Amino acid sequence: MPAPTPAPDPYATADPAAPKSFIATWLFALFLGILGVDRFYLGKIGTALGKLFTLGGLGVWALVDLILVLAGAQRDKLGRPLEGYAKYRTMAWIVTGVVLVVSLVINGVNAANRAGDASSAAPQPAAAAPADREEGDEPEADAAPAPEPAKPSVQELSVVETAFGKDLDSDMWWYAVVLDNPNPDHVFPSAGITIEAVDANGVILDSGSEYTTILQGRTVVVGDFFSVGSGTIAKLDVRGPTSAAATSSPAAETGSFSVSDIATAQEYGWLDVTGKVTSTFDEDQELVTVAVIARDAAGTIVGSDFAFIDRLPAGGTAQFESSFWNVENLPEGVTFEAFASL
């Protein structure tokens, strides 16, 4: 008599080799990102613990991981893409945008209420009484302020090139902006760059904001517009810091990034672009942004994407990987460039 087949264990774990779910990773990153739950789920235990103990890098790491998930750049421990990204990415972007807008509105209302309470409770300063002065005394002349030392001349940032295009499978548009800092001894720390999508009638259809430290030379900013709708972008307007925001930092002392070994590999309907970034900084740099642009045979920018490097050692090198979807929309003879920034 054959032995009976044992019943399946209802408490057995799922197949560890199964791809990780995009939906689960996105929800963990959106609501529990500061606790590192998304990285625990992906099997990245080391960085998950670091994210947990730093409360998501005080929110910055959690935000970067959320953007990685939404952009399709996040991978599981084995380096595989998340299952279901192509199907649910548009829905995830929309829901995330709604959640962020609602959070900003609530925080703004609370801040306004707190400011109103503080102003009503603050005591009014008493008027200063004039100092007693004997008859005939002349008031002393105010001391002339010391002249400020002359600041070295700082040139304004310039916009070298802009490009944009529409994703044929969605209502999203991509954009790329190439900036130049001509000042060899100045940088623009934590510079806010606003990119506005404008139609042929001058109507602003959507805008994007990027924050980066603009080092000497070229800096590339890339991103996506999500609310253009049925409109058509005719041009980009770019607004950034003026020369007054520059900080003295000689190029020989600041540090820089260089990119090498750019390569491509096509799989699963998309194109992976990899490369290496080398740092000359004296300290480790974390969350280094890598902007990747695609150019056609004529040199025109025809696509953009971005990636992040979690940690780039001082004087060391780290690899990045970016993914271009809809490979069939890229022209023949396309080449890729990458630019790293803080």
The overall strand count is 13
Number of helices: 7
Strand content: 25-35%
| Overall tally of domains | 3
Return the CATH topology of the largest domain.
Immunoglobulin-like
Mean pLDDT: 82
Helix content: 10-25%
Shape: globular
How would you characterize the overall build of this protein?
This protein is 24% helix and 34% strand. It has 342 residues and is α+β, with helices and mostly antiparallel strands. It has three domains: 99 residues, no CATH class; 101 residues, Immunoglobulins (Immunoglobulin-like); 88 residues, Immunoglobulins (Immunoglobulin-like, Sandwich). The strands form four sheets. Strands 3, 4, 6 and 7 form a four-stranded antiparallel beta sheet that branches. A three-stranded antiparallel beta sheet has the order 1-2-5, with no helix packed on it. A three-stranded antiparallel beta sheet has the order 8-9-12, with no helix packed on it. Helix 1 runs antiparallel to helix 5. The chain is globular. About 5% of the residues have low confidence.
